[in-house]
Design a protein that fits this description.
The structure is a homotrimer of 347-residue chains. Helices cover 14% and strands 30% of the residues of chain A. Chain A is of the alpha/beta class. In chain A, strands 8-11-14-17-20-25-28-31-34-37-39 form an 11-stranded parallel β-sheet, with no helix packed on it. The first copy, chain A, has a 10-stranded parallel β-sheet with strand order 9-12-15-18-21-26-29-32-35-38, with no helix packed on it. A 9-stranded parallel β-sheet of chain A has the order 10-13-16-19-24-27-30-33-36, with no helix packed on it. The radius of gyration of chain A is 26 Å and the shape is flat. The interface between A and B is large, with 82 and 79 residues. Strand 39 (308-311) of chain B pairs antiparallel with strand 40 (317-318) of chain C, so a sheet runs across the interface.
Chain lengths: 347, 347, 347
């Protein structure tokens, strides 16, 4: 990726300046000039690296980085100037942002865009090529609507939102400030509401919308259905990775993060500061309290009232061994009865 | 969401009129005017609510709804006029539809659309902005093709179909009447047919198509591959939620419904009136008979010949406890042998 | 599907010619003219079928195919002329390709396309309607960019690549030669890099890109995030089915194939010639050696150092039975302790 991947090649900052700006302790030569970031293994002249995962600690001595960000206890193992941080990953994130090259998009509406007569777009917003904006929708100041996005009826895109490309807001979707949505995401599609009537499915009208709080991020190809009567809600600073499915009338608490491919069924309520592992499932009409961690591929089948870590599934095994365990799982009740019966006979 | 979410604010219907129209028993004042629908908890003046899930029964007494739809056995608990229904949810769906505000789209082809010279579009159909329609494809009467849809070669979009936005029909996709497809869905992509040949993968041409029956609904970002030789088939009134993957040559029986994130591998055959829970998996080349229910995140690994409910997986547990059970799962065969061996020794 | 589904109706090839071209042994009348391919069950006059899966062996005698491709041991069961192949499926794939009708797309840029001033497109490439190509990106000879694709900044689309429709390459995505990408796929979106800072999430800049090797195929609605510092990498001839999620900095070895809905978390390294079953999950920061097979819906939680087949999960059961086994799983540690304790007492 060359210079582009490591940031703006024209920017150079002294290590001492970074220490001061982010309140980090400096050890070693503060005059070292930093012009980019890299991993411990790949870093070269002018690049700063970091150590957060102890798994990579042995790379510290061999790193060719100009400087490294470490915890105090790792500082002695470094052979370069160091910045000491309580949380090296978060310090790295901030320093890295200084060197990030971000594309800028001009204010104004691309001539190809298809705008409803009553759609409102702030003059400072950017509307890219092949964008559609429907009736009664509004795009606020500084928002960036990338190529191919479809914004349907009665939507609001808040200040400084960024819809990267090919995002769809179907209807009644309201985004707060600074929401970032990745390509292929679909918000506000009709929820999966069905009633069986005389042998055929009947659609239950989905009259609600989707309300997304400030600073949320929504991953590529993630889907968030609109509510049946009330809204589907993401509170502020919710972070959703790619290919997540959020059913109608779900509520996700502030600062909760979900890894890729999580599926949340309708009307589930998830607390604040929860961490949902990849491909986990959450069934409908249950509640998770704040600060619940769910491990990858767990199915959450009932409400959780205590913070903590929750799991389901079985460990990965070599297939032939696994087949034997799996066969025994089928007989588990009989086995347990036998053991308990023996117990009684033995006692 | 205000008036929009609760339907057309100009429409008002007397409760007695609703009772008569849908064959429901009225108890209480039939002159009450209904102008919208809402949940028990949120309903206010002029709104009708319903009670289907017994979990919410305690909301009945406190509801500020103008009227409620309930089962006969719940009627006494209501403090408002009631409509009595055998199936309150289905009655609610029908009443709710009366108050739904639906966007209408004008007949005709948006000037931006890119149409193959031999594509045929009925004059009553709506073709939105940035739509592409390929060679030998046809769009029938009353169909709505929303913004950004791509219809490839040799496709048929039946009467009154609705492709909301950014739907792709790749090639040889034929939709019956009244099919509704949500944004991001992809039908007719080449199935995953691979043969290993001298250490490299060889693509197996995917020469079939996709045939979708009348009244099917296909969720956002769902994918349905075209067949290798024969077609992939959805019979009538199949309901697929978001992010479902249907492999090549799968056949899904009429009136079957699948919740979000289900994955069905190639050449599986699924019966009629099946209910497939969220994120369930169905392996290839197996058959499910009619009226099979599969619970969420179950992996169906062999054919099912009896209607009923099927499951796999383990219950969710607090992580430390779960680790202990999971560790024991590894040893399950040895454990069972020990128990059975003891049994023999004891007897 | 008629003639289109079974290939070009004008092409006719003698069976003997097919035998010679692909080095297959012919038994029976080599003058039989073949004009298409079909399944054993559906084949009629002029069509060649194949038998690879022994499950369908009983269809051999009744097939109305003009000829069949079989293994030597199945040749006697056929009632038609046969081609004998070591691997009938791969032989069929090659023969089938002869009869495939492929749409051709003219060289040149559709007038609707929105091109950055410094984007470079080879004159032999096809750029379809409503395509966006961003700053500093390049499309090489013979590439086909279908309708609605979005190519962002600093991307390279190699010679003879095919982006079917509505594919997004966000930024710093480099495709080798002959890569085929299906609709809705998103490559190069920002990886899910988050650091918690004073109670709010902080984005970690995603400065890397995505590098895709020659001859890779990427399914519909699959997502591949760009790397945080280094690139996310697919080596040559990797085959990804639909709705797969590949996290940032993952590396997938050459010739590895993944079935639909697999989720791979960040920084995982997967070897060459691996086969990953549908909806399997692979956690972050682990390594799989070459030639690992993972069965459907398995969660891979730790590194795998030996080639072989690996699994997790429990077998599908009738729900009432399953509930009993699942309840016992909760108590498994206590059960094992009891058995082991008895063992000690008994010995």
């Amino acid at each position: 990726m060359g210079d582009t991947a490591t940031g703006d090649p024209r920017k150079k900052l002294a290590l001492a300046e970074l220490a001061q700006r982010f309140g980090l302790e400096l050890r070693g030569d503060g005059d070292v000039l930093i012009r980019g970031v890299a991993t411990l293994a790949a870093a070269g002249a002018g690049q700063i690296a970091f150590l957060a995962n102890p798994k990579y600690r042995n790379q510290l001595a061999e790193s060719k980085a100009a400087a490294v960000i470490v915890r105090a206890e790792d500082a002695d193992a470094a052979t370069t100037p160091v910045l000491i941080a309580h949380d090296p990953y978060s310090a790295f994130a901030k320093i890295s942002a200084l060197f990030e090259t971000r594309e800028t998009y001009p204010a104004g509406i691309h001539p190809s865009a298809a705008m409803a007569a009553d759609a409102l777009v702030d003059p400072s917003a950017h509307i890219g090529p092949f964008v559609t904006i429907g009736a009664r929708s509004r795009v606020e100041a500084g928002a960036v609507i990338g190529p191919g996005c479809v914004i349907g009826e009665d939507c609001i895109v808040g200040t400084d939102c960024e819809l990267i490309a090919r995002v769809t807001l179907v209807t009644r979707v309201r985004l707060g400030r600074g929401v970032r949505i990745h390509p292929g995401a679909v918000l506000g599609a009709a929820g999966f509401g069905l009633a069986m009537d005389a042998g055929r499915w009947l659609n239950v009208p989905q009259l609600g919308g989707v309300a997304v709080g400030d600073d949320c991020e929504i991953g590529a190809n993630t889907t968030i259905d609109r509510g049946a009567l009330d809204d589907t809600v993401l509170e502020e600073d919710v972070r959703l990775d790619n290919q997540i499915q959020i059913g109608h009338n779900v509520r996700v608490g502030a600062h909760t993060a979900m890894a890729g491919c999580v599926a949340v069924a309708g009307s589930a309520r998830i607390g604040r500061y929860c961490l949902i592992g990849g491909a986990a499932g959450i069934v409908g009409h249950i509640e998770l309290c704040d600060k619940v961690t769910v491990t990858a591929m767990t199915l959450v089948t009932h409400s959780i009232r205590e913070p903590g870590e929750y799991s389901s599934g079985t460990p990965m095994m070599e297939n032939r061994q696994w087949r034997r365990s799996a066969a025994r799982f089928r007989q588990l009740d009989a086995l347990a009865r036998k053991v308990n019966g023996q117990d009684k006979e033995n006692s």
